[in-house]
Amino acid sequence: MREFDLALVAGAEAGIEQERLASSLDLLAELVRADLDGVNALILERMQSPVALIPQLAGHIIAAGGKRLRPMLTLAAARLCGYRSGRRHIALAAAVEFIHTATLLHDDVVDASDLRRGLATANAVWGNKPSVLVGDFLFSRAFQLMVEDGSLEVLAILSHASAVIAEGGVLQLVTSNDTATSETAYLDVISAKTAELFAAASRIGAVVAERPKAEEQALTAYGRNLGIAFQLVDDMLDYSARQSELGKTVGDDFREGKITLPVVLAFGRGDEQERRFWRRTLEELEQREGDLDQAIRLLRRHAALSDTADRARHYGGLARAALDAFKDGPEKRALLETVDFCLARGY
Amino acid sequence: MREFDLALVAGAEAGIEQERLASSLDLLAELVRADLDGVNALILERMQSPVALIPQLAGHIIAAGGKRLRPMLTLAAARLCGYRSGRRHIALAAAVEFIHTATLLHDDVVDASDLRRGLATANAVWGNKPSVLVGDFLFSRAFQLMVEDGSLEVLAILSHASAVIAEGGVLQLVTSNDTATSETAYLDVISAKTAELFAAASRIGAVVAERPKAEEQALTAYGRNLGIAFQLVDDMLDYSARQSELGKTVGDDFREGKITLPVVLAFGRGDEQERRFWRRTLEELEQREGDLDQAIRLLRRHAALSDTADRARHYGGLARAALDAFKDGPEKRALLETVDFCLARGY
Asked: Domain span at residue A223?
């Protein structure tokens, strides 16, 4: 694990330290607790298969401490829309989590070139093929859950979202290792790869509650903007998180040559010598001792991390505003608090 | 390319030489020609994406000369069931082909260990990740086509089939390189991995024609048994095809250490020295010059290829019998001829 100046890192985004104090997922978790137990039970039931490796591998990733943020959005959005009597939101929240897990498993797939770069991923244990096939299995299970629910509208939303997520993944591959990626191109990637499922998960809440299109649209906007904010904070954390609080290695994106918004901003604002640094480290993946520290110094020199945080707050604001249409109450407060959490997590 | 005694190979399965003369897909192709043009146009339309790499890569595999056997089954089965007026069978046949293509792309995913064994696969050009993601994209497109069709029954059939296919793939991984695999375990693998989609593709024809369950079941049985016969012949061809007629390298399964029915039979009938040979070459993947020739000699010594052909004919017979319920006519004749084709192809 690389070491760098934690004091420097801790100081720089003090602007949202304020938010940290007040933000957690407590309200949301409390609100959907019973429903989420139902989701977890259903996930456990539906990932079973006579082929033992499937629940083994699926269980490994599903149990790996995910926050269940996306299914919680479905549950809370359904409640917000007044859905009280049924259990449809539980089945569909499980479908959302299965789709998310399938994309995680497929993201784990590596090429020989990645291995040469020394990456360790979950599928190192089993190889690529089981990750791909168990992902396919969970993806199919997601559709089976939707078919049992019987709503063609939900099926349309989530099959479309799945296509968009895959497109986003390919777009990311095309732009990865390309330091000339524009901010717009980058936002297209995360809007598809991350925010589409947040949007769909939230929207489904209004669909099961059979609410007017305006509420579906409001929840779609909430989810999409929340997802973008979430991903921007994730990008920032990769260069700044305190290890102990994140459980994620700082510098993963850097080592993979992933182009994220902080890099896009610093590259655009850097001089020719700095751009050579970014090209060498992220395009050519020629990385040396001290390069990650140097990258962090350059990001800070150009305020790239704090500007990424600013943009995250902007999208967080849009997510909050999207809920204006709904009356105040515990559900709305929980969803607003979720925005704060996504902005402040890790600090 | 390895060379071996073609005369020996050509002679051994002379038993179905008879069938070769009479068998082709001509009747089937003629019957569904116009519909298949519609399927191909729809495939081309729906594989488009603003992300250019997606149609590039999907086009590469979709254009790669597939026979479109599975979508033709859907088209012909719909005709057999008297479906005349609509175009639903065209959209669903395209969905079936998308699912098939997605599984092919996901089958192409390799591990570093495969590369060390010197395998060249389609994804060598692009790496694993695009194969996975474009597969996901096509899989999602398949579901979007089904959602537009609007039949929850079709969605249930194909989401179930997709889950079973993934299970079959994992089961194959678990049994691969295990020479102690039983014939039953092997049939479980191919019934899931290959025959499930043949069965679903055929069944859907009866569903769009809104025929009674008995016809759905008959077409399911036709497709399943045809799929098993198809795969058994494929397994046999891997040890016996004339290169020029197959466009496939003889010995692929052997080099990958894949356990197929010919090997299961020869291993079970072999003495301890022969079993050591199979373990060394297929479990430990320690292969030397001349091993493929030796494998073919052992398969022939124990009649493993001709017995595999016998079993294929058995399942082909079951497929034919499943059509007894239907009246004679060009559709039925085309589907019967398809059985002959699957049994005799490559000879």
From this structure: 18-344
